[in-house]
Amino acid sequence: MEEALTETAVEKQAAPPEKVIVHLGYPLWRKHTLVAVARARELQDQGHQVLVTHCSAAAGTCAVNLSGSPVACAICRSRVKKTAAENGLTLVPLETNYASADLTYSEKRDLAEGVHSAVISEFRQLPGDGIKTGVIRTVKRRYYANALGLLTAMKSLVSRERPDRIEVFNGRHACSRFCLMAARSASIPFNTMEITCKGRPILFEGHSAHDRVRIQERMKRLPLDLDLAARYFDRRRRPSVNKFAKKHSAGFQPPDASGFRKKISVFLSSQDEFEALGRDWKTPFPDYADVIREACQKYPDYLFCIRFHPNQASMASDIETPFRDICALPNAVVYFPLDTANSYTLVDWSDVVVTFGSTVTIEACWMGKPAIMLGPSFYDQLDVAYTPGSVDEFLQLLRQDLVPRPAQNAARLAVYQECDGNPMTYVGHDGRKMVPNGVRLERAWLSRIARTSDNVFCRLVKSYAKWAARRQKKAA
């Protein structure tokens, strides 16, 4: 199965030589650097002319150095230079002191979205809350200034070198997103690299790692393997495999539904994750509490069980207060992030499963339950759930006697998660994580120091943001 889903390096060698820019967007992060360096080496082996670019800022704020530490920048620059020299790669530093006057409004807006993406992901504050924390505003301002310089420098390099293609890891944060923007500006192709949930490198040709339409098209082209899917979904229920399953209670009992006509379970997702994905992930269901409250009030003879995702416990924003009045409704039971519950038991108990883009959508489909998915997700075009486009459409669906959607594409997602990827010559796997296979990443211990320092900074900022949110809540 695995060999059937991947494309070998040998098959790629037939392509004519090209000039390719490979940008090292996250040099302090091991996995990102390993995949990018391995990809650059492989392209070079295939006869392509490869230019490896990196940020040369002296005190630049980015996704891997949100504190803007000049020491972290020095370690980053040193690691890139040593690694490039060790692997025989041509290195091109991107100066960040370029004036950004020639950038368009659209480019600046897109870059600001990339900054927003990284900051939301790290500090886990919803947009309206982030502007209330002075240190986060400063981080965003410094990050944006650094990213403007990188975009201008990359556009200048592209104009001078005229590459055939640009490749970069991920492409969501501003410190890698600018590469995609420079490619679009020059009307040249780009590829993005990522790592699968099984720890394999994967290459997305012509789109980012968060283009849900193209990724779902890829999923639907995969072969159907129901036995593999059965093993996959069975493992997801095990605490040893799924970290969130550790928070499920084996003895959990759903509420008594006597006197109610339907049992509806609602599974929330982490709002910050969707906020970080940008405009293409804009949802018509932005306020979870308002949508659920309206459903509870419209159908008083339905029992609604609302399950927060355990991951929401670490959000800095106050996400629980909007649900306090829902708890008082006679037909609603709310399980907050730290409450004991079991998602799979709730799915079994339900007549209908409602999700806000959660992976429970796929699991409900596999378990033979009708599911309604509200808003965009990586599963919204797989025909695994009903996908209303508005609150009114959602409420109308709840009135109907829904039947489960076919499980074939749920099985294909399992194949995607378990088997898909693009093997690289210089990347191996030790059964637990990716390992270098003929490439060398330098200054690993210094990089760990820099990452640890930045993690401490981010935890302090996040703790302060949580404290400020609680203080504001009490004052209100």
Poorly predicted ranges (pLDDT <50, ≥5 residues)? 7-13
- What percent of residues adopt helix (DSSP H or I)? 40-55%
CA-based gyration radius: 24 Å
Shape: globular
CATH topology of the largest domain: Rossmann fold
Mean pLDDT: 90
What does this structure look like?
By secondary structure, the protein is α/β, with parallel strands linked by helices. It folds into two domains: 2-221 and 420-475, Rossmann fold (3-Layer(aba) Sandwich), CATH 3.40.50; 226-411, 3-Layer(aba) Sandwich (Rossmann fold). Helices cover 45% and strands 13% of the residues. It has 18 helices and 13 strands. The chain has helices at residues 2-5, 9-12, 30-45, 70-86, 105-123, 127-130, 134-161, 174-186, 212-220, 226-236, 271-275, 288-298, 324-327, 343-349, 360-366, 391-399, 408-419, 444-475, and strands at 19-24, 49-55, 90-94, 165-169, 190-195, 201-205, 262-267, 302-307, 332-335, 352-355, 371-373, 427-429, 434-436. The protein has a six-stranded mixed β-sheet. It has a five-stranded parallel β-sheet with strand order 9-8-7-10-11, with helices on both faces. Strand 10, helix 15 and strand 11 (371-373) form a beta-alpha-beta unit. It starts with a helix and ends with a helix. Mean pLDDT is 90; it is low at 7-13.
